[in-house]
Design goal:
By secondary structure, this protein is mainly alpha-helical. The protein contains five helices and no strands. It is flat, with a radius of gyration of 61 Å.
């Protein structure tokens, strides 16, 4: 067993090494037996070590096999994951292409709807302007007629007012004379009564004034404490709420100032006792009404507090909605940047195509013009040569007519070819001008100014005029 071998190994390692000092022939019998025993022990020790190392080797081999299998499994899993990631990336790219196509279609439909709405809005605005101008003229005419009528009514009213003022002044002077006479009589009668009553009422007035002052001072101090307390409470509350309740605070301040002015007014009006009693009763009644109003306002305070909590909850909801809208705004801005980049790319492609078409059409126009100029020069030369041949040949009239008919036929055929070439040239120029017009219309529809092209479009108005109205007249 491996454990016994390990113990033997430890024992052998602790014992002395094999001594080979003497040869076996020189040893005695006892020494040979001891030597054999040592050799056997050494052999057993080496066998135990060999078995131990074989077990260790087997363990290492099994561990290596297990780790190799695990490594192959992990590599297979990694390959599967890579394959799944590639498939997911392909599907993602396909979805991105589909969504790009959808966005392009939506942008095209949006642009079409915008153009239709703009045209409809312009037409409706023009019609509305016409209706507005017509209504304005009618209203101006009515205004002029009303001004004339108003002027006439003012003149008539002024005449009536003058007559009324004269009559009223006469009546007022008569009434003033009557009232002055009655006042003198009444003053004479009541001066005597006042002397009698003044002496009697002085004592009563002093006592009543003293009592009224005590009641008034106690009531005023109580009112001032209550008003100060209510004012401080309302001030602390309305400083915490929004700016909308500042009007209420200012109103309360004005009411407090009114109360203070009223109290000062009561102190200044102590001279006349009877009038002061009436005024104090009135002021007490007004103060009680004001206290009742303050109690009502305290009830309203609870309602305002509840409304404030509701407003805070509504504010939280609106803040959340604002954050959502802000996130949507950022998403839309990213989409807008992508769409703008695509628009710039399409614009570059479009300008490149326009350059190519311009070069091709310009080259064709130059070729056709050169061909036409060459044919015209050849025709002139042929006519000159023909006239010289006719003059030199001195043919009879029949031959001349025959030759002239043939020449007319040839010239007619050449003229038809020239007209065909001119017609082709006009059609090419017309197509070129139409393409420029559509290009400018597209640029204005996309909001791109014509100065940003970097070149000036080549437009030939003389070549664009074709026969039979095939080519539009340049504007």
């Amino acid at each position: 067993a491996p454990k016994k071998n390990v113990k033997k190994k430890g024992a052998a390692s602790k014992g002395p090494a094999v001594e080979d000092a003497l040869a076996p022939g020189d040893m005695s019998k006892e020494e040979l037996e001891k030597h054999v025993m040592r050799l056997r022990e050494e052999l057993d020790r080496e066998r135990g070590e060999r078995n131990y190392f074989q077990l260790e080797r087997d363990k290492m081999h099994t561990f290596w096999e297990i780790t190799r299998r695990q490594l192959e499994e992990k590599k297979a899993e990694l390959r599967n994951k890579d394959r799944e990631m590639e498939e997911a990336e392909e599907r993602h790219q396909v979805e991105i292409k589909v969504y790009k196509q959808k966005v392009k279609h939506l942008l095209y439909e949006h642009q079409e709807n915008l153009t239709e709405l703009k045209t409809g809005g312009i037409l409706s605005m023009k019609l509305a302007q016409k209706d507005h101008w017509a209504q304005e003229m009618e209203l101006w005419k009515e205004k002029c007629s009303l001004k004339v009528e108003l002027k006439e009514q003012e003149l008539a009213h002024e005449a009536v007012l003058k007559n009324k003022h004269l009559k009223q002044e006469q009546e007022i002077t008569q009434l003033c004379n009557d009232f002055e006479r009655q006042v003198r009589e009444i003053e004479a009668r009541y001066t005597e009564k006042m002397h009698v009553l003044r002496n009697e009422l002085d004592l009563r007035r002093k006592t009543e004034i003293h009592e009224v002052e005590e009641r008034k001072n106690s009531h005023i101090s109580q009112l001032m404490r209550n008003h100060e307390k209510a004012f401080n409470d309302m001030k602390n509350y309305y400083n915490d709420i929004t700016l909308k309740n500042l009007d209420l605070i200012s109103l309360l301040k004005e009411q407090m100032e009114g109360l203070r002015i009223r109290v000062d007014h009561l102190e200044r009006e102590k001279a006349d006792a009877l009038l002061q009693n009436k005024q104090l009763n009135e002021s007490l009644q007004q103060a009680q009404e004001h206290i009742f109003e303050l109690e009502k306002k305290l009830v309203r305070y609870d309602k305002d507090k509840e409304a404030l909590t509701n407003a805070k909850a509504h504010l939280k909801i609106t803040q959340k909605e604002w954050k959502d809208l802000q996130w949507e705004h950022e998403v839309l801005e990213q989409r807008f940047r992508k769409v703008q980049a695509e628009r710039d790319e399409l614009y570059q492609k479009f300008t490149k195509a326009i350059h190519e078409v311009q070069q091709k059409t310009g080259f064709k126009n130059l070729l056709l013009e050169r061909k036409l100029a060459g044919l015209l020069e050849i025709l002139e030369k042929k006519e000159v040569e023909l006239s010289e041949v006719f003059a030199a040949s001195k043919l009879d009239q029949g031959a001349l007519t025959l030759v002239s008919h043939k020449l007319e036929d040839v010239l007619n055929s050449k003229n038809t070819t020239i007209k065909d070439l001119q017609l082709q040239l006009a059609r090419v120029c017309k197509a070129h001008n139409d393409m420029l017009q559509t290009f400018e219309a597209k640029l204005t529809a996309f909001g791109i100014p014509l100065d940003n092209l970097g070149f000036k479009p080549l437009e030939n108005p003389m070549l664009g005029q074709g026969p039979a109205g095939l080519v539009a007249v340049p504007t």
